[in-house]
Specification:
The complex is a heterotetramer of chains A (312), B (449), C (367) and D (276). With 312 residues, chain A is mainly alpha-helical. Chain A has helices spanning 21-49, 59-62, 70-75, 87-119, 122-137, 140-151, 157-164, 172-175, 177-202, 206-214, 219-230, 232-248, 252-256, 267-277, 281-311. Chain A has one domain (79-311): MetI-like fold, CATH 1.10.3720. Chain A contains 15 helices and no strands. In chain A, α12 runs antiparallel to α15. By secondary structure, chain B is α/β, with parallel strands linked by helices. In chain B, the strands form five sheets. Chain B has a five-stranded mixed sheet with strand order 2-1-3-14-6. The radius of gyration of chain B is 23 Å and the shape is globular. The N and C termini of chain B lie far apart (73 Å). Chain C is 25% helix and 33% strand. Chain C contains nine helices and 22 strands. Chain C has a six-stranded mixed sheet with strand order 6-7-8-3-9-10, with helices on both faces. Chain C has a six-stranded antiparallel sheet with strand order 14-12-11-15-21-22. In chain C, α2 (92-102) packs across α3 (107-120) and α2 (92-102) packs parallel to α4. The radius of gyration of chain C is 24 Å and the shape is globular. Chain C starts with a strand and ends in a 5-residue tail after the last strand. Chain D has 276 residues and is mainly α. Chain D folds into two domains: 5-52, no CATH class; 63-265, MetI-like fold. In chain D, 71% of the residues lie in helices and 0% in strands. In chain D, α3 runs parallel beside α6. The longest helix of chain D is centred in the N-terminal third of the chain and has 34 residues, at 63-96. The model of chain D is unreliable at 272-276 (pLDDT under 50). The chains are: A mainly alpha (312), B alpha/beta (449), C alpha+beta (367), D mainly alpha (276). Chains A and B meet through α2 of A and α3, α4, α19 and α20 of B.
Chain lengths: 312, 449, 367, 276
Amino acid sequence: MTTEPVPSPPKKVRNFALLSNRAGAAFLTPAGLLVSVFVIVPFFWVIFVSFTNRTLLGRTALNPEFVGLANYFSLFDPATFFQRGQFGFSLILTTQFVLASALLGQALLGLLLAWLIQTVPPWVKRITETFVIAAWILPEVVIGFAWFAFLDRDQGTLNMLLEGFGLPPGDFLLQQPFWVIVVFNTWRGAAFSMMLFNSAFSSIPPSYFQAADVAGASSWQKFRDIGLPLIRGHIVTDLILITMWTFNTFTPFLLTNGGPSYRTELVSIYNYRVAFQDFQFGKGAAVGVIMMLINLAFALVYLSIGRKKKVR
Amino acid sequence: MKNRMRALALGLIGATSVAIPAFAVDLNVTCRCVIGGVNSGTAQWIQESVIPAFEAAHPDVKVTLNQFGGEDAQLTQQLALDFSTGAGPDVSAFDGFLIPSFVEGGLLKSLDEVAGPEVNDWSGWAALSEGSRSLMEYQGKFYGIPLGTDVRMIHTRKDILAEAGIDADNWQPKSWEEVLDAARAIKKIKPDSFPIQLNAGVAMGEATTMQGYWLALLGTGEKVTDDNGKFVVSSQGILDTLNLYKTIYVDEALGDQRAQLLADGRNRSFANFRDGVTALLFEGDYFYRSVTPEGSEFAVPNRDEVMGWVKVPAQEPGKGIRGQDFVTISGGTGFVINPATDAPKEAWAFLSFMNEPEMQNAFQAIQPRITARKDIEIPNSPFLTATSQALLPLTTARPNNPNYNAVSSEIQRMTEAVVSGELSPEEAMAQYKAAVTALVGAENTVSLL
Amino acid sequence: MASVEFKNVTKSFGEFKAVADVSFDIGDGEFVCLLGPSGCGKTTSLRMMAGLETPTSGQIFIGGQEVTHLHPKDRNIAMVFQDYALYPHMNLADNIAYPLKVRGEAVAARHGRAKEVADVLKIGHLMDRLPSQISGGQQQRTSLARALVYPAKVYLFDEPLSNLDAKLRLEARGFLNHLQRDMGMTAVYVTHDQAEAMALATRIAVMDHGHIVQFASPIEIYRRPATTFVANFVGNPPMNLVEAEGAQVDGKLALKAEGLTIAGLAMTDAIGKALATSNKLTLGVRPEHLGIAQTGAANTITAPLFANENMGPESLVTLDRGDSARVTARIFTDDHLDLSQVVTLGFSAEHVHLFDSTGKRIPALGE
Amino acid sequence: MKLTIPAFVGRIAFSALAALIGAIFALPLLWFLFAPFNARAELGLALPDPWTLNNFVTVFGNSYAVQALWNSFIQAAGGVILVGAAATLAAYALSRSSIPGKSAVTYILLLFSSVVSGSAAMVPIFLIISAAGLMDTHIAVILTFAGGLLPTAMFILRDFIDSIPKSYEESAMVAGASPVQAFFDVALPVIRPGIVVVVVWAFVNIWGSFLIPFILLRSDSNMPASVAIYSFYSEAGTPIVTLLAAYSLIYSLPVIALYLFVSWKFGFRFFGGIKA
């Protein structure tokens, strides 16, 4: 067999891929169109409007002016920044909220649950899972009302229980509104972390744990030395998503309306108030842009942590 | 391929958005009213009286009522968005105080601009009282027809006042101190009660400003704006008002602090009155008309016996606005026409039709109220007759200012800061000053201290 | 069946050259094994034949036709994957018949053909099962059946037996060998297991760092490994390699290393040339060519005993020459070897392999 | 395997802890199990007295509320089909093609979507829908949700597809399948568990959401249940507890049923884990 060396014309070598670039582009088109119209266009609209003083009502509705960074300056005005009901207060509140309810609450509780249900009998696993997931999937108006009834000072289930245990009842929505929304958001969102970590754990070959069993490792040691390191990628995914979701969540509004006295006014609620109650689109847009930058910072931090550890 | 996509897209849009007109003209009417729900009387009136009668008179017009069940602020949102894009109902219920900001935003046009000069020939204009006409007026032009107006007073529980040794039938406080003294007397015999309800806080929205803050502030001789239309951002009147709040809610617990702070606080305050926890409640005639009648949720048992009303006193006699001894404030709602309506003539026909005496009397039969028209009697309602006669001469209106809505939000924040005990009146006023100055510009504010 | 040819094929992943300027020719009906450690470029080469990777430069021909940039589906090849890649949602019949389905054959015809092949592979009774419901060995045969169900020009195997246990692997290897004889198919088979390569291949291409080090028949590779790398890779246990200093003494080659006693080896021109560059030579002796010998005898290695493993028909005797340099002998004896602390292993001069300082084989006389 | 005593105690403790957490999660929802059947329900937890189904009869008598459930279904189903299909295609392309910059795309979109999920973007979305003449239509809600949920759906699904061996499609192509055949015959069925997760997630999101339909819809006949539920508030705006509870229960059942069905049929599985 001989083959004449055919001098093939110098063409650009395109590496084989399961999906050619052309097919890939076709596959991306539907999502691309939808995302362009409903995400990218609004995104740039928001950025643009954040540099104007556009409002819905009043003189600046018809003739908004370009005001440069004025909206941003007003958000970061040091004279009012930390006052309740102002941007800075919301920002700090939201940061605490994310730390407490997403990182400490949802992620840790989800991790704990995922670890627990690896070993418990199937019926315990099933019941626990169902309730945890119910909290996640029920419609928010229903959930909002359920918690409202649950926390009612005079009749609520929680105070009924507390009194049953001989504890003093509390006026939680007024006295500890921040902790109410922290607990609420942990309750609402733990399911996602639980499911993600659950599937992460079950993707680890059982032999790894059996080997540790033989070596006499305790449950905690197995968790720390085997489970945790092997699901690092999942943890990064989980943290990115739940941080972002918690940072942007609006659901606590249904429980507290952002009050009392703005004590639960998260940035998303602040943003809603500025844009949709005060109708100051320009300023609301500036809030939206800052929120995105913070989300970006979060994502970069997680990704760099995830990467660094992998290299080591 | 491209053409096929376009055809598909057009098909989708067409299939979902094109309604087949069965009548020559379709009119949509929106109000925050639901039969059996919010403002049931209004909904019932439009659906059962106005629409059949109008359609009988105009057989080529089909009128549909959209019953909006959400909150006032939500309807404002929807109307603002819709009007800004040329969409929305042809005729809509509308709160008068929003007219300036809508007009300035280009979202409303005067009636004659929308429907033509024949608007000015309508016979009903002459029948409207001067005061009520101004509710839907801005810079000398009419943007809608007012439906009715209201007045504000202190609703009393005579049974409880009597228990505290007060001659309830003849009691009319002449100063804030007398109101407070009565509350203290009640608190003494009923330590768990919260005798006074003077609205405060963010959750109640405009009800805080109108039924609470204004009623107190007018008693100090001041208004939210001065005579030149500039917002007053620091004054003795504001301080006195805030101190009154502080006395009631913080220092002496004469009012239910929780009800001011919780999201459903307004209903809690109504329930307090129903349950005899509160005996002196600052509200409009709405409270009598719509909140407490028999069969409604906050119906006061044996209402005619136990419920009374008194005028809101000034801080001291003669210290009120215009030197009055007593003060009150009125607002009002009406209906406007969408500037982008497809059927301006028919919309105007409907709007004026619903304000003809015949229709107004039908409304009165369903739910008596203080009407805008002078030629409509208040049937068989001693309460409305008495209050309107006593209070309409004393009344004040909110400033016709496009920034009023935003400033009102700041007022609500200011009261909440005081009522919750977080800020002193001085601090709260300083915060208010800063916020309002940022909103309207220093040149539009004035400090009286 | 068809031939396969690589012409100066290079594949780079960024800076890394997985396959570096490789050329070879596989004849029609040959069964070629690509053998080497992981990362040597053997799987990449196979995937380039399949069309699953595109060469950075060079050309690939199948049956004389250039296929360098041809889509896999247009090459008419068959491939068995390391992880079998059985479709979890299809039963065995559909899995095996899938290549026929995409070729447009009717359901009845393709299921009939699938059953034939499955019967040959002894999985015909499992056609309704899902892949998750059968054993690993059965899965392996299913993936084989899917490759055999249609006539391909070339059959490609990517470590198809590596997920099987030892016994099943031997069985499957025998079957593949039989199949190859039966069908006379052109096959390219990637493995890191030299025994598999030796057993199956008509020719073996030993690869290292993207290069083909030696491409020859199994017996040639066994008898005349081209480099120390090949020598060390082929054979079980691999060839013993002893680094030594060489010198020409009295027209003979003398080698000096710790514990090594060697009579002068015949000097050749090739050895002379190697010595001219460097006196560092490597002596190679296969374990099966070593036997117990008298201490001090010629052609022996003496060192402390490290291990003595009795394997049944043979014993593996390992000496430790220090610095982890070990020498292993395969000694065929039914008797239990009772060895003392220091052991001497002997070999005959004809079994000596010599490599120069770069690791290249120095041809023996007559090669 | 025989358990040692400490291990046995450990397992009991684990089970007890898991059950306790489950119970705590159930607490706020308990009320919904009783109140709908109680003729005189209030905010407090109480056994139904008297026990009744009348609340449901009343709720089903409210044609607006019943229609709203159907509207919710249309919007959720439409949105889910669009999100599921578009996200699957896109995530597959992002995972399997070598389009330049594809690894950055999902992160960037995710960040964009975090802006857009805020209320700030409601205005441009309103303007877009209005300009397209789609106000007050189901399709407006469906498209808006699809666009908003897609970035996250693509993110989750791409992670999932990345974790699936490429040898499935490779073997299909070597066997003679075109990329499109390999996608539909082999890849799609294998990705299905991931699609199910995304579909359930998207369904739950659309089914429960209030703001977008509220802003894009006008007529009662198009409003979903999340808006219609407010028709069970009294004239004064307080909840009519009995009816609200009954409606909430009916409104919640589809998502619960969906979850149970999916976890029974497919199992709820996530893959994921970012590959650096």
